[in-house]
Amino acid sequence: MIETSANISGMSDAIALYRTLDAMEPLLPQSAQPELEELACEILLYAGKLSGQVPAEITRHRIALLVRTMNSYYSNLIEGHKTLPRDIERAQRQDYSADPARRENQHLTKAHIEVEEAMIERLHAEPTLSVHSSDFLCWLHGEFYRRLPDELHFSKDRRGRPYRIEPGALRTFEVDVGRHQPPYSGALPGYLARFEAFYDSAEILPTRQLVAAAAAHHRLAWIHPFGDGNGRIARLHSHACLVRRKVDGFGLWTLSRGLARQRQQYYERLAAADQRRRNDFDGRGNLSDRALGDFCLFMLRTGRDRRPRDHSPRNRRRPPRLAQPERPALNRLLGANARKLFSQAVSGPAGHSGDVTFGRTAERTFSISTSAEHPCFQRGPGASSA
Question: Lower Cβ count inside 10 Å, N or C end of the chain?
Fold first, then answer.
C-alpha cells in the first residue's frame, strides 16, 4: 500500500522539525576563509586555462558530450549504482536490459544526460535565470523524473514503505535522512526563498562565489526539498553554478568524477555539516560553521583535483587492455576518434597512454582518464565502484 499520510519518517510529532529560517544559518562559512579564497582563485585560473586550450567550438562541443556521459555514470556511482558503458550506449538507443536493476540504471543514466543537456541549453538561452530559484530547482526535478518510467516514481522510507514522487513538486510529507531531520514540509517555500535571496545576493564577493556554490550544495541537500532525487538535483545545481560563473571550462570539467572517487568522504562531510554548532567558537548560527567550512574545503579541493601526476617516462606504463567484447561498445559510446580528438585538442605534455591532461602546471594537473584502468571501463564483479 502506498504511504499517503503527511509523515513518511514515522515521527509522531512534527513540532520538533525545523520551521524558522535561521535554522540553516550560516549560509556561508567564516572559518578557513584564506584557504577557501585561495582555492577559489586557483580554480578560476585553471578553468580559464582549460577553456583556452580548446579554442575550437566544435571540438569543445564534442568533448562536452563525452564529459556529459561521464557525469551520468559518476552520478549513478555516487548513488550506489554502476552502469557499464555498453548499457549507457544501449539506453541512448532505447535498448533496455531485461534485468530490472540494469534497466533502472539505464533509465537513470539516460535521464541525467538529457536533463544536463537541457539545463545547459536553458542557461545559455536565459542568461538572467536564477539557478538558485525554487522554480529552477523544481524544473530540474521535474525534467529528470518525467524522463523516468512510472515504476521509478516511487521511493521507500526506512521501514520499507513505498511512497510516490511527484515530478517537480516539493515534498508534502516529513522524511529523515540518516541522522538529519530536514525542515518541516510546510516551511519549504520559505527556506527556498531564503536560499535564493542569499545565494543570488550581489554582496557575495567574486572571490567567495565558488565558496558560496559549495555551501549552497550542502544547504540544498539539508533543506531536502523533494521526496527523492535530492542528491542528483544538488549536483546538477552545482554544475549550473559553475556554468553561471563560467568555471565549467565550456563543459569540459566534471565535479562528479571527483565526488565519486571520494564517495564515502563526500557523504561523511555532508553529514558532518548537518550538525549543530558545537560551542561558542563555532560561529553564531544554528549549524556548525566549522563543519560547513570543512565541507567547502572538501568540495573546492575536489574541484581543483590537486593530486599531482608524474608523467616522466619511467613512470609510464601500458594500461590494461579492454576485454574484446567491450571495445566496440566503448568506441561507439565515446566516438571512434575520442582519444585522438582529446590529444589533438589539448596542448601541453601528454600523459601516459589513455590519459589526457588538462591545465597542466609544474606541480598540478587536471585530467580526464579514458584508460581501461578507470572503473567506468571495468566490468565484472571484481571491478572497483569508486
Answer: N
Residue labelled with grid coordinates 544501449:
90
pTM of the model: 0.75
Position 83 scores a pLDDT of 85
- If one compares 94 and 10, the residue with the highest pLDDT of the two is 94
Alpha helices in 79-229 (DSSP H): 85-92, 100-125, 134-146, 188-199, 209-223
Q: Is the Cβ–Cβ distance between 233 and 116 less than 8 Å? A: no
| Beta strand 366-369 pairing with 162-164 | unpaired
For residues 300-321, one letter each, b for 16 or more C-beta atoms within 10 angstroms of the residue's C-beta and e for the rest, the string is bbbbbbeeebebeeeeeeebee
| Nearest Cα to Cα of residue 124 among 283, 248, 3, 226 | 248
Domains and CATH numbers, the chain: 36-308+345-377 (1.10.3290.10)
CB–CB of 226/233 below 8 Å?
A: yes
Q: Where do we find the cell 514522487?
A: 165
Residues 18/183, Cβ–Cβ less than 8 Å: yes
Cell triple for residue 308? 599531482
> Using CA of residue 87, residue 333, residue 374, residue 246, what is the dihedral sign?
negative
Q: What is the 3-state secondary structure (H, E, C) of 44-60?
A: HHHHHHHHHHCCCHHHH
pLDDT in tens, 142-167: 999 999 999 999 988 777 788 999 99
How many Å apart are CA 57 and CA 74, to the nearest integer? 25
Read off the pLDDT of residues 255-280 as tens digits, 9 standing for 90 and up: 888 899 899 999 999 999 999 999 99
- Give the separation between CA 169 and CA 260, rounded to whole angstroms: 27
- Segment 197-214 shows an average pLDDT of 93
Cell numbers given for 158: 526506512
- Structural element, H or E, at residue 368: strand 366-369
